Amino acid sequence: MTYMHDPQKIRNIAIVAHIDHGKTTLLDNLLKQGNIFREHEKIPERVMDSYDQEKERGITIFAKHTCVYYKDFKINIIDTPGHADFSGEVERVLGMVNCVLLLVDAQEGPMPQTRFVLSAALKMGLKPIVVLNKIDRPHANPDRALNLTFDLFLELGANDDQLDFSYIYASGVNGYAIQKVADEPKDLTPLFELIIKKAPAPSGNLDLPFLMQAATLSYDDYVGRQACGRILEGKINKNSTVTRVDRKGDHKNHKIVRIEGHLGLKKIEIEEAGAGDIVTLSGIPEVEIGDTLCDSNHIQQLPPITLGEPTVSVEFLINTSPFVGRDGKHVTMNKLRERLVREKRANISLKIEDIPGRDDAIRVSGRGELHLAVLIEAMRREGYELAVSKPKVITKEMDGVLMEPMENVHVEVPENFSGMIIEDLSKRKGEMRSLQTSEHGLTTMQFLVPTRGLMGYRSEFLTRTSGLGILTSIFESFWPWKGDMAGRSRGVMISNSKGKANGYALFNLQERGKLFVTPTDEVYEGMIVGEHSRDNDLVVNATKAKQLTNVRAAGSDENILLTPPILFTLETAIDYIEEDELVEVTPHFIRLRKVHLTENERKRQSR
Question: Which of 318, 321, 356, 359 is nearest to 335 (CA)?
């Protein structure tokens, strides 16, 4: 199949927005109205979120490519993550596009992640098209959202041309876009027309030597590693030879065995492709993100792709609990290291390094707890067992001053909860920047909070606001260290024996605090089975059965009523633990345990 297009008839755009502002839903309807599905084809909701964890969490984790045709134009679209932890995905793909669709919720206006993605786009010289989405919602105020977006452009130093941005009103869920609020809503044709008119065509000349940079990687069982990127110059044919130039400047020739483009959600194999198009090339087994692929007779090296630095690190350790190997297939350090090295090749926003003097642990650094939790969840589903330490922020020294990462935090809560949240974040060294209360009784606040102050707070925040609050944050910059911060206020209950927890023992223990296990759950010595109601740790026996006698009396046996236990997700478990605790992760279980519990400590705590 021939795939060559005149670069003037191609548009490459990325859809960027804050989490939950409707990117993926709008893209669903762009695909449907681009007529890429067969008439009776069943189309899933949020069709671009194809990864298991994306469907379960309801968020986009990986940037994904698709393509629609409108009139005689080909529009390559990249759906990007909206969560700050996956901002590395956004930074990578912006180099492949010539324009971004910036989605802004018509009710909420610009949010922290909007600031990040817009700043990155403006620095790269891109001129965004603003889409004021969700205008069908009852409290939508698109004019206010537009004014706030313009203010944000000014604040981020947009030039005069970028300030003259185009905008359109839309409802992604209902599949329509309108130029003016008073227009009659029909379909997304006005948005397609605006993209064709305002998004610039990609630069590039079909007659120049081939040039491309690998922006993302994928893997195919038949052809191995594949490099995806936009062809910057020239054209490429199947079976032609290209030179790969790595970041050290070393170069090696490779034969292209497959070229793939996108048509809707499907990858299609093609014979040739040209400048301006986004394609996937196979046949370069050692390709890394940022490598230059060029004509063998015109070797050159493009600047490497640079990403923001990680802010949080955890240690991945081998699982040493008594239950090791019961549930998972891969339990050795060699297997863990092999898997993490494989991850590093495709996910350059993660930093993976050995810890000097230790052969039982590897340090993994990322943009946040969710970023790391997605990797751990992927590994446990692949049959890995491991233990994970408490996350630590990554500090650095500048001019002799210790610096720590700070986050711009956006909070929305009903007005009656605002005082409590201000007090909470102040204890965590947060500084309030703004506070506004709407006529609907909703208080919006902005804080600057150390990253370590937010660790473990998100789940507590939901409890404190009865599930009615919204808290989002994004890395701002490094600031001087804010001093010591209080940790978890309560101790834990630690099992002193191995066996099955039983109802009688748990019934007696629930007076002491909250339980993490249910009757018949297997426990072992050192495993954390609950939270103590006081600030000290307590060693307990969760397997103790009731002493039975052969004497029976009516009414002497009490009914055992157990409060439902606290069940941890991976993120809440990682957030919850303290320095001397670990999360044990296996394919089907998440357990907490103490790192060391000596005989003396056990005796002292039992008193």
Answer: 318
**Beta-bridge partner residues of 443:** 413, 437
**E strand segments, 234-296:** 235-237, 241-245, 251-255, 258-263, 266-270, 272-274, 278-282, 292-295
Residues 6+ positions from 181 with CB-CB distance below 8 Å: 135, 142, 169
pLDDT digits (tens, 9 = 90+) for 426-471: 988 999 998 988 887 888 898 999 988 888 787 788 888 888 888 8
Instruction: Tell me how far apart the alpha carbons of residues 79 and 51 are, in angstroms, rounded to a whole number.
Output: 13
Question: Nearest CA to 531 among 583, 585, 588, 489?
Answer: 489
Q: Taking the domain 211-295, which CATH number applies?
A: 2.40.30.10
Give kind and range of the element (H or E) at residue 503: helix 503-509
- Residue whose C-alpha is closest to residue 118's, from 146, 157, 86, 79: 157
pLDDT tens digit string along 308-340? Answer: 778 888 999 988 889 888 888 888 889 998 888
Q: In Å, what is the CA distance from 21 to each residue of 15, 286, 395? A: 11, 37, 32
pTM of the predicted model as reported, rounded to 2 decimal places = 0.73
CATH code reported for the domain at 492-606: 2.40.50.250
Which fold, 312-393? Answer: Alpha-Beta Plaits (3.30.70)
